[in-house]
């Protein structure tokens, strides 16, 4: 998989060269390119932002450097491969494990990491003609920019690629793989500070262990994330059925 990330803080993406993802990059499983948006400016101050039309607080990222950066990256690729342009924004589609699996099937991801109040909307509209554009959000809170979101998504997607996680079994049993939170886990010693490992896990009855784990997953999900058990049913806004 090819992954390109554009940011005004390319150093923010350095952790992608560490640990399992770093190994995937060195092994060629992930072809990673990190690009400095300011390299695509032409003025002395390397300007990337401007005041918002219509007024308001904060600054908006200007379209020209984004256009040059994305054109240059897209022209460097195979023209037969349609990239997926991921735009981190609190106004985007919530990122979850289902989207991680979808993205793991794509050949080429490009992250456009905005700062300030976001990127001029015309950039998103322009590239919708040449790429699959997905504005996404990490959660209902506001970060200073898209870099942390790009790190999180690259890790969540990268670890699903064949060969990145040593034991693929661990992908099957983890939280969210079956729509539930993972059961509690224990290791040695069997007694620690007076606290025992649940007896069923030491008994060797695999059927009983599976039943106990399923029950624990249900209890944990019901307590911590009841929304996963009862997703809202067909919530609609009158008059907006055909909206994007
Ligand atoms: N940029 C700022 N806040 C964000 C969020 N919650 N998710 C993704 N990108 C963001």
TrEMBL record:
Protein name (database record): tRNA (guanine-N(1)-)-methyltransferase
Binding locations of S-adenosyl-L-methionine: 114, 138-143
First-level EC class: transferase
Keyword S-adenosyl-L-methionine assigned: yes
Assembly and binders: Homodimer.
Gene Ontology annotations for the cellular component aspect, listed alphabetically: cytosol
GO-annotated biological processes: tRNA N1-guanine methylation
Known catalytic reactions: guanosine(37) in tRNA + S-adenosyl-L-methionine = N(1)-methylguanosine(37) in tRNA + S-adenosyl-L-homocysteine + H(+)
Keywords annotated in UniProt: Cytoplasm, Methyltransferase, S-adenosyl-L-methionine, Transferase, tRNA processing
Gene that this sequence comes from: trmD
Function noted in UniProt: Specifically methylates guanosine-37 in various tRNAs.
């Amino acid at each position: 998989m090819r992954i390109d990330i554009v940011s005004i803080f390319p150093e923010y993406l350095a952790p992608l060269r560490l640990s399992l993802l770093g190994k995937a990059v060195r092994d060629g499983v992930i072809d990673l390119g990190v690009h400095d948006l300011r390299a695509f400016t032409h003025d002395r101050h390397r300007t990337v932002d401007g005041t918002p039309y219509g007024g308001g607080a904060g600054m908006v990222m200007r379209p020209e450097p984004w256009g040059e950066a994305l054109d240059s990256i897209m022209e460097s690729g195979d023209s037969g491969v349609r990239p997926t342009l991921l735009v981190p924004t609190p106004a985007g589609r919530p990122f979850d494990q289902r989207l991680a699996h979808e993205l793991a099937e794509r050949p080429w991801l490009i992250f456009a990491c905005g700062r300030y109040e976001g990127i001029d909307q015309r950039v998103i509209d322009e590239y919708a003609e040449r790429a699959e554009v997905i504005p996404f959000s990490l959660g209902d809170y506001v970060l200073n920019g898209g870099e942390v979101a790009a790190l999180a998504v690259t890790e969540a997607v990268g670890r699903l690629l064949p060969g990145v996680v040593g034991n693929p079994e661990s992908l099957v049993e983890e939280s969210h793989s079956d729509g539930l939170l993972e059961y509690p886990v224990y290791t040695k010693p069997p007694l620690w500070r007076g606290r025992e490992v649940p007896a069923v896990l030491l008994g060797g009855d695999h059927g009983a262990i599976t039943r106990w784990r399923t029950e624990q997953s249900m209890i944990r999900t019901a307590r911590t994330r009841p929304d996963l058990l009862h997703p809202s049913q067909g919530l609609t806004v009158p008059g907006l059925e055909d909206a994007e």
